[in-house]
Amino acid sequence: MTTPDVHRTIEAVWRIESARLIAGLARMVRDVGLAEELAQDALVAALEHWPASGIPDNPGAWLMATAKNRALDHFRRNKLLARKHEELGRELEVRQEIAPRLDEALDEDIGDDLLRLIFTACHPVLSTDARVALTLRLLGGLTTEEIARAFLVSEPTVAQRIVRAKRTLSEARVPFELPPREELADRLSSVLEVIYLVFNEGYSATAGADWMRPALCEEALRLGRILAELAPGEPEVHGLVALMEIQASRAGARTGPSGEPILLLDQDRGRWDQLLIRRGLAALERAESLGGALGPYALQAAIAACHARARTPAETDWARISALYDALAELAPSPVVELNRAVALAMAFGPAAGLELVDALTAEPSLKSYHLLPSVRGDLLSRLGRLEEARAEFVRAASLTRNTRERELLLGRADACARGSAGRDGR
Fold it and tell me: Could you tell me the pLDDT band of residue 95, with boundaries at 50, 70 and 90?
């Protein structure tokens, strides 16, 4: 195997093993930042040794053994942590007695370790941007460069977020443990928020030249599926997975040959991924089977399921979607939910019904720079034949979006309104 081939193999191994490697180390050293440094040291060692010695039979066990040795060296060098060194040494001795083969020891408590790492990386003490960057770094195995490229920010900015996040966790003495029961709901909500933020940035990029960034969708789905395996009794986890699976099923139909956006009602549903739809519907059924009222993610998944089950746009059960949005607005009220509810109302009961609700949102401060508000208003006005007003709304929406593809789409709709208005005036 050539050196480039070995490096590609090491990169693949790192993507697979890094999260559980960091999680296992964090349980031992009780410091996420130090755990990542030790894991990185093991990666460097692999890059130095594997091209000459070959890929070991169990790469994950090799990395863990190397990282553990680095941990022992670290504590030996630091006399202030002598007591921790002794504790770590005793733990390693016990593990070696119980499990002589390191690859067996590697699997001990790995599920709990990963779950602890997820909750730690998404701790509410961190800002949203920090939680996202740290999660992609620790659990996704993404480099700083990859995270920066995905979110269209500079590498130094991402690096600073990650460094500050690890420092904040250390200074706040955030324990590497599962949250107590009384904190579980809030902490789980923070985790789900981060995963869905990553997915949404991939599904509808907020800025840049691409309408979608599939790699982010895939990473969020991977994290969601892992979380569902680790927390099988949490209905909202399955609700989020269902929502992402169903939305991801449309990816192949959301762009045209040149990468231009294709809106939901104009998509070729034959290009929707039926496997992802089946997986999403199964996850939604799992969420529903766990009992109790559906949470925000499960409700959104139920809405997505209405679209997935409709073979054509005309067969969409908009009345049910409208009712589901009513329930979502009551459970998790927000201006964005109200805007989506307005779209559902318009589809179920006519554009005038939707426009009434949208007009009530125009004074909402939080939507002042939200491009989808004038976009939705423009769509409803155009359906009512008020083309000149619609054109102005589409132009305003285009001025607010930071995504090049979306801007082109909105300006195209504005031009269509202008042509329609001119044609009508000429009759």
Answer: very low
What is the chain's Cα-based Rg?
25
Report the 10 Å Cβ neighbour count for 31. 18
Alpha carbon 126 to its chain centroid, in Å, reads 17
pLDDT value at 281 more than 80: yes
Question: What mean pLDDT is predicted for residues 69-92?
Answer: 64
Identify the pLDDT of residue 103.
36
Helix runs in 204-273, H state only: 214-230, 235-248
- DSSP code for 261: B
* pLDDT confidence band for 107 (50 / 70 / 90): very low
Where do we find the tokens 């031992």? 28
Domain ranges of the chain: 1-108, 193-314, 317-362, 369-427
Closest of 165, 172, 217 to residue 195, by C-alpha: 217
- Comparison of pLDDT for 415 and 139, the residue scoring more: 415
pTM attached to this predicted model: 0.82
Closest CA to 74 of 33, 17, 135, 24: 33
Q: Which residues pair with 125 in a beta bridge?
A: none
* Two structure tokens written together for 91: 């733990």
CA distance 34 to 264: 46
Task: Quote the longest CA-to-CA distance of the chain.
Answer: 91
| Band of residue 108 on the pLDDT scale cut at 50, 70, 90 | very low
Residue 316's φ and ψ, nearest 5 degrees, are: -65, 135
* Token pair 């305003």 in the structure block, residue: 396
Q: Name residue 189's amino acid.
A: S
Provide the CA 338 distance to its chain's centre, in angstroms.
23
Which SS3 state, helix, strand or coil, does residue 13 take?
A: helix
